[in-house]
């Protein structure tokens, strides 16, 4: 019932984010909050240079005439759109400047954390039940590593697993990031779908990674881990491991319903004899349990001759069982840490593996972050220096496989990596180089 003139006067004191929120109340507020006069004032205060400050009468007259033309010649909402587009462009420019410097060891931008902060990026999960109702969980704990970020969500109000149908992982960015304050929870945001998972028959269709006294872990590719309470078979926590490679693109450039499609890679020109196969590849490997790092290293000059191709894979040997000078210890008690509002735990024998494989031009060739587990092998160690049980870790996706053999040394209470081999899919290599292996 309040007159529009009074509402407009009130709206003129609001900042851009508050004005956008007010416009969502009803149609009447939406039309009033689209007023070009209010938005031109906001636009001018943010983007006009200091020279437009009205210090002289001639400048004042010129600015006023320009303002009238800008108001009368434009449709309602024009200056709102101009302000939003320019703010988005400014944030994009700032983010692009931050991701330009590249770490020589990982081949990835080393200011990823700063870039994510500049964009205001966060992540949420949306659980959808069989009735179509959505349950959104925003609060998350973040853990940053050299090449990945681990995100942990937990809640006491999640629905039962047996009534859930899908889980969606979204990247969320505020429409108007403000570096001077924390993002408003109720402010305008954009969602970018990163991945969607079907939860029907989760325990039967998903890989069981490990368990402790309280929870059991199930892995969903790519990079999602669900912890279930053992007794109730209900969700205790959800953990996502996201590799930095193209993380910003996946988290910001998709829509709320469609994932961001990665551009096809352009074939890398290679003047070396194709019979030589792959050469001068570098691997950066990080093995951690969330907050604790067990092994982090870079392996250079990896190669594979064409004669080593077998069953559709090219083999890159990183650590050979025959060369004990390259065998590596894992530091600490290997396990995956988790927590909820009340409980904390550590699932032993599980960890997060971050793989960053660079080609000979130092471009990321194969990158992933995933939770894996160590399984006891039936074979005994035949190595003289390492007498103990053998454990294996195997990971596979559409682009390749990782096979690791570890020996447990009871005397020193530590694992040693004695064999580490990457198997790269020939389809991946052929699409990357435009060849036919």
Describe the fold and architecture.
With 437 residues, the protein is of the alpha+beta class. The protein has three domains: 4-49 and 56-85, no CATH class; 111-251, no CATH class; 278-433, no CATH class. It has ten helices and 22 strands. It has a six-stranded antiparallel sheet with strand order 3-4-10-9-8-7. Helix 6 (78-98) runs antiparallel to helix 7. The longest helix has 21 residues, at 78-98. It is globular.
Quickly describe the structure:
InterPro entries: F-box-like_dom_sf, F-box_dom. Helix content is 22%, strand content 38%.
Relevant terms:
3 domains, F-box_dom, 6-stranded antiparallel beta sheet, 437 residues, alpha+beta
Number of domains: 3
Count of DSSP strands = 22
Question: What amount of the residues lies in strands?
Answer: 35-45%
The first-to-last residue Cα distance is 74 Å
Q: From the helix content, strand content and strand pairing, which structural class follows?
A: alpha+beta
Low-confidence stretches: 49-65
Helical stretch tally? 10
Major beta sheet, specifics? 6 strands, antiparallel
Task: Work out the radius of gyration.
Answer: 27 Å
Cα shape: globular
Helix content: 10-25%
Biggest sheet, spatial arrangement of strands: 3-4-10-9-8-7
Average pLDDT figure: 87
GO cellular component, one term: SCF ubiquitin ligase complex
Protein name: FBX15 protein
Domain F-box: 1-42
Organism: Rhynochetos jubatus
